[in-house]
Amino acid sequence: WHLDQLAGPPYGSLKLNTDGSCIDNACAGGGVVRDHTGMIILAFSSSFGIGNSAEAEAKAMHLGLRLCLERGLSISFMELDSLFLVNCFNDLWDSPWAIEYILRDCKNLIPSHASVSHVFREANGLADRLAAHG
């Protein structure tokens, strides 16, 4: 059992966890949507080409939100292990120009009632593994 498998959202809601990875400027990302029982509703990974870790994290978030919208999945919670990206998304920090447009689009894609919060890497294990796979 991993911590991310145990911490499901409240009854009747969905949670999206995403993560990005950048090794030698090659970026990838992944994520998972779970219901309140911890059942996986959607899992994804993708390569994003050349970039940096902030871009990988932002692109993984964006891809996850787009996939949810395309499939009619309304998430209530989104968790990332990048405190930097969470703070930029929540307008606590200024976003670098390279990810500003991605975050702006993410704000249009996420349901207005949803929260975006930070979790430690240990609680984001499956998303981390999917990002590494991408």
List keywords for this structure.
5 strands; 5 helices; 134 residues; 5-stranded mixed β-sheet; alpha/beta; Nucleotidyltransferase, domain 5; disordered N terminus; single chain
Describe, in short, the structure shown.
This protein has helices spanning 3-6, 53-70, 83-89, 97-109, 125-133, and strands at 15-23, 26-34, 40-50, 77-80, 115-118. The chain has 134 residues and is an alpha/beta fold.
SSE map:
Elements: H1 3-6, E1 15-23, E2 26-34, E3 40-50, H2 53-70, E4 77-80, H3 83-89, H4 97-109, E5 115-118, H5 125-133
Helix pairs in contact: 2-4
Notes on the protein architecture:
- One of its GO terms (molecular function) is RNA-DNA hybrid ribonuclease activity.
- It comes from Cephalotus follicularis.
- InterPro entries: RNase_H-like, RNase_H-like_dom_plant, RNaseH-like_sf, RNaseH_domain, RNaseH_sf.
- With 134 residues, this protein is an alpha/beta fold.
- It has a single domain, classed as Ribonuclease H-like superfamily/Ribonuclease H (Nucleotidyltransferase, domain 5).
- 38% of the residues lie in helices and 28% in strands.
- The protein contains five helices and five strands; from the N terminus they run αβββαβααβα.
- The chain has a five-stranded mixed beta sheet with strand order 3-2-1-4-5, sandwiched between helices.
- The chain starts with a helix and ends with a helix.
- The N terminus is likely disordered.
